[in-house]
Structure formats: structure tokens, C-alpha cells
């Protein structure tokens, strides 16, 4: 096991490893960096910004970093496809922690640019989706220019000598986190709190190699899986879902994604309540794996909200142990 990610087995207040080097979706000032700062020990670690989610996860696989923080899901836009696809099809990785970050946006531009002057705006696609309503109301006819991250469009305006300009960039203003402005006060804020949904939250995950120490059960846990739809026929999805339902395992998220092999071929990205050490979860995973042999386990880890998973008495570990013992006795007669 990699010494950098083994450490002390994480508990409820320490859900992740104390890695020495972290990758994150950069540049500095992204919401991903804000999520990284919630990981125990990250403030004292070497934190390396990467220009894309695949690049951050590749650094983990290549062992140039010990772990990475990447966005997984947004409360407005849903799953982050770059992350879902990479962890589903790339070399196996493990999720060790989830982090929730409330999302706020500001519109920034070089000094002298007025709000009414803005004709083009750059930011990440998920950010644009969360401020599109505001833009249509306050910047009618504005054109959107995609950027690799929320901070990238703003940081690209900096000339490295204390100046700010959008000349040659193809846009007039950028949408980013207020943290970027705190670090670069030379950026002019044209508008604050421009989110369409003031309660928007993005879920990030700490990802390490599969030999990393799995967090111990806390009673408030989540497990993530990738389940390929093994056969396109009536009832195929129902048969998968029944493996969870009959064992009292609650699905907190299920999202279909194309396998990119041919049209109509999908896999499911799934989150369930509970830890693989829970008997009901382990039994459900065995049932799913039996039906879908290519099912991938992405990890069991504490819920960020620490909300305890409530389980009916007949789905408790004690009930599974008693039933298993009863069957074993019958088989031995």
C-alpha cells in the first residue's frame, strides 16, 4: 500500500487520508480548491492545480500525486460527465470522501468595462447553466464562451504584471468564484451573487488509488457504484434495482451515461446509502455483481452531511446474521 495514503484509519471526523500531494481542478481559486481545503491535512500538503478532471485523475493513476479532488455532481446541473466517465472507464480508483461546497458567482472584467458593454462571457459550462437566467435578464443577447473552469476565464485576463485585459481572449467578462477576486483584487466586479439558485451546491470527491485505506463505517455512509446495463431487454433495469430494494438499501442517486461505444448502450452511475461493511449493502452488491459481472465498486465513505442512515429492523446486520446462521444450520443437517 502507498504509504502516503495508508495512515490512520479514517473516522467520522477524519474521512480521508492525509496525503502529501493533492491534484485538483485548477487554476487556483476554483470551487474545487475550496473543496480541497476541507480535506484534513490539505492545508499543509502540496496542492497541484490541473487543467482538467482527466488530468487530475491521471496524476493519481500515475502516482505523481497521492489523491485528487474533482467535482462529481451539482444540485442544479446534475452529474459532472467528465468525472463520471473517467472513474467509470479508466483504471480503477477509489472515492474516500465527499465534500459539499455552496456555490456563489461574480461577474468580473478589466477596469473600465461597464456591465452594459459586455457582449461575451466566459466560464465553465456548469457555471453558465447556473447563471443563464441572470445573464438573459441582465445581459440580453450575450454570447457564451466555454472555459475549462470557473477560475480559468478570470485568471486568463491577468497579464502577469498587475494588469487586466481581455484582448485576444474572445470575451469581455468572466464568471468565477469570489475567492478569485480576493486573490486578484485588480479584477473589477461588475455584479455579485448572480446565481439563478442561491441554494446551489456542488459535490466534490476525494479520489485515490484502489489500494488506499477505505474509511471505516460510521453509520452515516454512502457507497458509489458503476453498473453497466448488461442486456437491453424489458425488466433489465428493474432486476438491478430489485437487488437494492429487497435488502432495504436506499438509492440516493442513479444516473444513466452512454458507454460511447454505440447509440443506446448505457451504464448507470449509482449512489446508495450505507457502507460495504454493512451486511445489507454487501448482500445487494453480490446480487448486482451476479447479474452484471462488470459492476465496478468506487468506494464507501462518510456522507458529507453526516446524516445517519436509518435501517428497518429486518434489514439490520443482526437480521442478516441470524438468517444466514439459520440457513447454515439447515444446510448442515
Account of the protein in words:
The chain is an alpha/beta fold and 333 residues long. It contains ten helices and 15 strands. It has helices spanning 3-6, 31-36, 53-61, 81-89, 125-138, 152-155, 178-183, 236-245, 279-291, 317-332; strands at residues 21-25, 46-50, 67-74, 78-79, 94-102, 106-109, 120-123, 143-146, 173-176, 188-192, 201-208, 221-228, 251-258, 266-273, 296-302. Strands 1, 2, 3, 4, 5 and 11 form a six-stranded mixed β-sheet that branches. Mean pLDDT is 88; it is low at 1-19.
The profile of the biggest β sheet is: 6 strands, mixed
How many whole angstroms does the radius of gyration measure?
22 Å
The count of helical stretches stands at 10
* Low-confidence blocks of residues: 1-19
List how many beta strands DSSP finds. Answer: 15
The SSE order reads HEHEHEEHEEEHEHEHEEEHEEHEH
Give the overall shape: elongated
How many angstroms separate the termini? 43 Å
User: What is the strand content?
Assistant: 25-35%
Structural class: alpha/beta
- Average pLDDT number: 88
Overview in brief:
The protein is α/β, with parallel strands linked by helices and 333 residues long.
Could you outline the blueprint of secondary structure elements for this entry?
Layout (H helix, E strand, L loop, with lengths): L2 H4 L14 E5 L5 H6 L9 E5 L2 H9 L5 E8 L3 E2 L1 H9 L4 E9 L3 E4 L10 E4 L1 H14 L4 E4 L5 H4 L17 E4 L1 H6 L4 E5 L8 E8 L12 E8 L7 H10 L5 E8 L7 E8 L5 H13 L4 E7 L14 H16 L1
Parallel strand pairs: 1-2, 1-3, 7-8, 7-9
Antiparallel strand pairs: 3-4, 3-11, 5-11, 6-9, 6-10, 12-14, 12-15, 13-14
Helix pairs in contact: 8-9
